[in-house]
tRNA-2-methylthio-N(6)-dimethylallyladenosine synthase
Amino acid sequence: MVDTSFSNMTHSTQATERFLHVITWGCQMNVYDSNRMVDLLRPLGYKVTDKSEKADILILNTCHIRDKATEKVFSELGRLRQIKEYREEQGQETIIAVAGCVAQAEGEIILKRAPYVDIVFGPQTYHRLPKMILDIARKSGNVIETDFPVESKFDFLPAPEEAQGHTAFLTIQEGCDKFCSFCVVPYTRGAEESRPVQAIIDEATRLCELGVKEISLLGQNVNAYHGQGPDGNIWDLVKLAEKLSTIPGLKRIRYTTSHPNDMSDSLIAAHRDLPALMPFLHLPVQSGSDRVLKAMNRGHTAKEYYELVDKIKKARPDIALSSDFIIGHPGESIDDFKATMKLVNDITFAMAYSFKYSPRPGTSAAVSTNQVLENEKDARLQELQTVLKDQQTKFNQDTVGRTIPILFTNKGRKEGQIAGKSPYLQAVHVQGDESLIGQEHLVEVNECLTFSLSGNLVKESIPL
Ligand code: 5AD
Ligand code: SF4
């Protein structure tokens, strides 16, 4: 229930004009969450501004997954504090809110170190944001909301009113029960939870009515989705995707992030049988060494990953594979690293993310005594990234000469250009009329540039 009794607000410059500025770090799920925060605050009269100094509310939506997350937050907060002070001198009040996984993990520490912060709230409690803001406006002091509530935030979020374009994220599952040795997600996002099917269909339908053509289903373990169906049964991701594909206007469905152990045979078959399911799969392996995979608690071997990829490629030979790699997990020897390099060279990826291991407080790997030296991690990461970059370039070059459907999503960088995405998530631009934005057309790809592909619209093309 959204509390809209907002007439007593004291921090606004004018009763009717209130602005909100959201800074989003981290994963796509954070982008989704930030959009929903905007949806929550819109009924209260807040409009989004990209100018932080104009904002009555500044929200910093944080990520705790890697790097020096907490220090980064405090340094950004220092900047936001200056804005708050400057605005105060002008007689304008500003609410600073810290959201996301660092807020969840650090909670009170944030308020202690940065008392000018008004609200700290975790990923599971942002549906209470209007109420929290109201409490601040009533001068009841700063607010912490980092418990895992009994109610689900999804039951309290309003339907999206504005789509950001022709592609959208939709969170269908949150949290994780897998407890990989290196990962904070089970601690910051909580236990694995799937949203009910009908709520997802309603949200997807609304997005499509607003012009969305491609939806990326999000979840920390998205392929483990098992939500309550309208028929009273538990639906898996395949059944959900099949149902979503019947929504008028929806052309493309993607999903991320998947765990290899939840890649069911029926999901693999759907990549062959369900045309809306895009031939792109982000399937993190993290390491190619059985010893490290075991230490990471990943629950599968390298051989099992190879076999899985074989099965997927048999079902959908043109599938583009993507992955995540962690280099320098505690105990990773040079031979372990070589096994990762071998896996990369054997499988080949269309794209991949690779990271140096960074200890996360509270995780089991962080207390391991056999941490890998920093310069060793740097050298290994560089070696891996060189190969991954070459593989990505090769994958893109191999698209040259092919005719593929492109969903145009925006204007290109140069006059007369429009740009969009291939089924394999590649950026593609052509000379074309802006009226084609929001449509899918066949394009003959004829050049591979550094950051995108370019091509020509197939003549007489009608929207697909
Ligand atoms: N250190 C480095 N990388 C990490 N990831 C998750 N936790 C850590 C960590 N502690 C990476 C994993 C995961 C991706 C989202 O971030 O590769 O798949
Ligand atoms: Fe983290 Fe993914 Fe492992 Fe869950 S499966 S603990 S989200 S890395």
User: Anything to note?
Assistant: DSSP finds 13 helices and 21 strands in the chain. The first strand starts at residue 18 and ends at 24. The CA atoms of residues 241 and 393 lie 31 Å apart.
